[in-house]
From TrEMBL:
It comes from Spartinivicinus marinus. Residues 34-119 form the Type IV pilin Tt1218-like domain. Keywords: Membrane, Transmembrane, Transmembrane helix. The gene is pilV. Coiled coil: none annotated. This is Type IV pilus modification protein PilV. The chain crosses the membrane at residues 12-34. It comes from the Bacteria. It holds the Pfam family N_methyl.
């Protein structure tokens, strides 16, 4: 019996090359997606760290000025700052400058110091503020802010949106923005 020689394939066929390119392209797209998600998570983590720092800084300033807390000067100052930030979105200077700069060269009363602390933390220069568009909230339980009451410091901020995240998400509270809450108790 005579066998005919079959032409042996030499090299790679075009179909195999196309399949290889397709598999590599899908893999590279997956890597790009993971990199984008990693960058987003890193940015969000940095924002959360800054929010925690800002809440702790406000708590320390309140501990240093307990009479302004019990007289609700911090509560009023934070409410004023939040209203000014909401009224001037996107502005580099969303808040009015306090009448007196309470630094080492100026002496201030409790109310002036509370106003300056709120302005310094959340408004001093919005272009360099670690959390742009931050909304501070301060709630005392009970509402009198007396010695021994719990003080809830809550910071809410808007995350920067990427070009593919243009949809708005809301929850039952009306907002899906990230928040940090710190609860402190000042003992007199």
């Amino acid at each position: 019996m005579k066998y005919q020689a079959i032409n042996k394939q030499q090299g790679i066929g075009l179909i195999e090359v196309l399949i290889t390119i397709l598999v590599i392209a899908i893999g590279l797209l997956g890597l790009a997606g993971m990199q984008a998600q990693s960058m987003k998570s890193t940015y969000q983590s940095g924002q959360r760290s800054q929010a925690i720092w800002m809440a702790q800084e406000l708590a320390e300033r309140m501990r240093a000025n307990p009479s302004a807390v019990s007289n609700q000067h911090y509560l009023n100052a934070i409410n004023t700052v939040r209203a000014e930030i909401s009224a001037n979105p996107g502005s580099d200077k969303p808040c009015s400058t306090p009448s007196k700069a309470c630094d080492a060269t100026n002496t201030c009363n409790d109310e002036q110091l509370a106003r300056y602390d709120a302005w310094d933390l959340f408004c001093a220069d919005a272009s360099t503020t670690p959390l742009p568009r931050v909304n501070p909230y301060l709630v005392c339980t009970p509402t009198s802010c007396a010695d021994g009451s719990d003080i809830h410091i809550t910071l809410e901020w808007e995350e920067a949106q990427t070009s593919f995240q243009r949809t708005t998400k809301t929850t039952g509270s009306g907002s899906d923005n990230p928040t940090v809450e710190l609860i402190i108790r000042l003992e007199g």
